[in-house]
Amino acid sequence: MVTSVTQSLGDTHNIRVVSMDGVRTDALMPYKIMGVNQIAEGRSLIACHRLSFPYGVYYCHQPRGATTFSVSLVGSKDGARFDAYAMCHHQTTGWKPEYIAFKVLGEQPGSTVPFFPA
């Protein structure tokens, strides 16, 4: 998967990988945001999402009209520090109204939708 992404982007110097495997912290505890930095925009990013299968299956795509940010966090209970990644989709006009993010955020197609990978 990493080889495919690097071949598509043509740049191996700014690849970010997010994995929660082995992270030992309470994901639901309050966190303090220490900083936010934009790291990619538009066609300069590829997002890969794990799909619900009993084995590793990923869906990789280049979202149009999206901006990705690195967010530095510190856990309020245990002081755990890590970077999370958030992607804001700006072009959602063609998305289905039933999409879960619209329901959670009380929005509709055409709205900017943030995505925070777990």
TrEMBL record:
In this chain the BURP domain maps to 1-118
Put simply, this protein is called BURP domain-containing protein
Q: Which PANTHER family match?
A: BURP DOMAIN PROTEIN RD22 (PTHR31236:SF2), BURP DOMAIN PROTEIN USPL1-LIKE (PTHR31236)
Give the matching Pfam families.
BURP
Organism field: Chenopodium quinoa
